[in-house]
Amino acid sequence: MISPRIVQKAIDLLQHSFQMTQIRNYALMIIAVAFAQGFFLFLMRRTIIVASREIENDLRNDLFWKLEELSSSFYNQMPTGDIMSRATNDMNAVRSVLGPGIAYSVNTIMAFLFVIPMMITISPLLTAIALIPFPIMAVIVNRFGKAINKRYEKIQAQLAAISTFVQENLSGIAIIRAFVREKHQMEKFYELNEDYLHKNLSFARVYAAFHPVLMLIIGFAVVLVLLGGGKLVIDKTISIGELTAFMLYLGMLVWPSIALGWVVGLYQQGTASMKRIRHILDADPDIVDGQISLFPDQPEGKIEYKNLNFSYEETPILENINLTIHPQATLGILGQTGSGKTTLVRLIPHLYPLSTGQLFIDERDINEYQLSALRRQIGYVTQDTFLFSDTIHNNIAFATPDASREEVISAAKIAAIHTEILEFPEGYDSYLGERGINLSGGQKQRVSIARAILANPKILILDDAFSALDTYTEDSILQNLKKIFPDKTVILISHRISTLQNADHIIVLERGKIVEKGSHDALLQQDGLYAHIYQKQLLELEIESVS
Fold first, then answer.
1. Distance in angstroms (rounded) separating the CA atoms of residues 244 and 4
2. 44, 103, 238, 468: which has the fewest C-beta neighbours closer than 10 Å?
């Protein structure tokens, strides 16, 4: 705020007798003020930008932690690409508000608070004339701000759609090539990209008009000051030095006014992005931790379903399930596709919300257990095996990162994958591609089985875990698993009766209901669905052996 006053005194000095030392002193004062201004500007920017990066870091950590604790139903409704867009592009927009947005907002507020009083001390009348266009500016900023916000929300939503489409295409590239759909997918991408382009151009047109309109208003204010100020100088109401200082003060308001428009744009983008991020942060998990933080010191592994009914979004999946799985017993589950087998076992690790009194583990309602404590006692090999882009060792030791190489090898041997791992160039230290793309389907399943075995759970669930394996390899793994079966409750889901026939108890599901149950021999005697499937599979084996 001091520089224009120094310039004013120097110019007014030129109208009278002066010495060069006096001019030199004023020049040195202006240089000193400029150095001080630059130094504190550096400190301010460093402080605020660093703070904005720290806040971005915390916010990203909060977002990821929230994503980790949200239940499966949330991911059924929100595409992965949309989530990625919110975690990257939207996060950057929020950071811009917290960094440059705050910095320039403070500069603008401070400039108006200090510059206008300095202008008033020179000439209240001229100050009133200079501020005439500013109410117009406020209205324009408000109108443009709403338009920017609306268009930016559409841009981010379209970007999320593109991210989702690209992510799905990269994950399913083998399917796209197998069905020769590359051209079709490219055309769909062109359409999405073209829509994204149009939305960006619509945003750019509004944003491009914003700054020129502000400059026009500021230019109008300068014209008014030149006309009014010139008249006051002629009338000797103010000096030329004071007019010059006034013009410099008005110039100090030019950049804050321009920055105001830029900040409004940042703020509108940031609020639109924060709204999208808050959609995740404010989401409530369907499943809440219970009060019991620890399993019993010696968990038994008993599982009881009592009059259990379950639906996906009002679509009945399981009806009136009554089932007791005794500790250390092996349960086999057979049923046609869509009969509810996977849903039945996915309820055990509490992946979906359940009403109280329907599912009990070790005589306690599943809702009473803390989720982490419950799931640490459960090993679950899913139908759709998932492997991380990491070494084979780390994939097997995912649930037990402190496991030694010997323990990992032992689990791999039980899963009948050890010999094949040694054939990789770096053995257990070989890196897998995305989702284990450099492994066959059967190898992925066996690595997943080894991962579950190494976790040493009390309850082991194998959901069609042998579907990609030949019967010889499957039998080898089952023989190996018998070594760990005696002290574990095991649930086997399979379409092959050969996998289930040695189980202690077998149930048959049909349309979400248990229609048959008993041992292998007892079910054959009932001559129902189980016996029908068994006879069919025997016939298929005979045909294969003949061919």
1. 8
2. 44
What is the reported pLDDT for 70? Answer: 83
CA distance 330 to 322: 17
**SS3 track for 358-405:** CEEECCEEHHHECHHHHHCCEEEECCCCCCCCCEHHHHHCCCCCCCCH
Taking domain 3-279, whether its CATH number is 1.20.1560.10 is answered by yes
- In the 3-class helix/strand/coil scheme, how is 221-273 assigned residue by residue? HHHHHHHHHHHHHHCCCCCHHHHHHHHHHHHHHHHHHHHHHHHHHHHHHHHHH
* Pick among 3.40.50.300, 3.30.565.10, 3.20.20.140, 3.90.1300.10: CATH of 387-456: 3.40.50.300
Q: How many CB atoms lie within 10 A of CB 28?
A: 11
377 has pLDDT over 80: yes
Among 100, 111, 82, 130, CA closest to 269 = 100
Integer angstrom CA distances of residue 370 from 75, 115, 256, 327, 535:
21, 60, 54, 21, 44
- The band of 547, judged by pLDDT with boundaries at 50, 70 and 90, is low
Q: Is 16 helix (H, G, I), strand (E, B) or coil?
A: coil
DSSP code per residue over 316-330: EEEEEEEEEE-TT-E
- Mapping DSSP onto H, E and C, the string for 400-464 reads CCCCCHHHHHHHHHHCCCHHHHHCCCCHHHCECCHHHCCCCHHHHHHHHHHHHHHCCCCEEEEEC
Domain(s) of CATH 1.20.1560.10: residues in the chain: 3-279
The two tokens of residue 481 are 């698993």
What confidence tens digit (pLDDT) does each residue in 441-482 have? Answer: 888 888 898 998 888 888 889 888 887 777 778 778 877 777
pTM tops 0.85, yes or no: no
CB atoms within 10 A of CB 3: 16
CATH numeric code, 303-377+459-546:
3.40.50.300
H or E element at residue 312: strand 303-312
Q: Do the beta carbons of residue 119 and residue 127 sit within 8 Å?
A: yes
**E strand or H helix at 480:** helix 471-481
Dihedral pair phi/psi, residue 491, rounded to 5°: -120, 120
Q: What is the DSSP letter of 484?
A: T
